[in-house]
Design brief:
The protein is mainly beta. The protein is 14% helix and 41% strand. The protein contains three helices and nine strands. An eight-stranded antiparallel β-barrel has the order 1-5-4-3-2-6-7-9. A hairpin with a 7-residue loop joins strand 2 (49-60) and strand 3 (68-75). It starts with 17 loop residues before the first strand and ends in a 19-residue tail after the last helix.
Length: 210
Amino acid sequence: MEAPPVSAMPVTGGTINMMEYLLQGSVLDQALESLLHRLRGLCDNMEPETFLDHELVYLLKGQQGTPFLLRARRSLSHPTAPWHLRYLGQPEVGDKSRNALVRNCVDVAASHSLPEFLNEMGFRMDHEFVANGHIFRRGALKVVVSKLSRILVPGNTDNTERLSLSYLVELSVLAPAGQDTMSEEMRSFAEQLKPLVQLEKIDPTKQRHL
């Protein structure tokens, strides 16, 4: 659920240790246009990028009992674009002084044979969903507003059902480790979106995963 759309993902890797700073919230369907209007006034791009993505979540059972999780995502609106494989580390939620959730993030582009490769490596596809929506940017900040839909028939992205009557709103920044001033910039931006949406530091281990 927390992974950004493939159409907007920066590809990182190698020796660079990138951290994702994240705030999340939701807005009811009827309030969507008001939020988009506010974001157009606050962000660099007056007209947001749009996306329609298919995400598959893979698990590999470890010896310690905690499964290793990877997210594979592809663009349905740009079927020739590369797949993206994403690993998100455990959130660092203990530091109360931080205004945002912080976790390690590794993101790489991959070929269209990614699902077959993960299956051969022993991963099991746990669940899949479709996400569509809008992406706004303001400097290093990125705001993703997305509608999430469950896939009713495995692998059939044309047969979906919306999960809720609201849109997921995620404010995030990718930065090298130690750039904790980013969370203060995010808090300031989030204040400007109230009362339309309340963006918070949410521990994903205490919420239901998509």
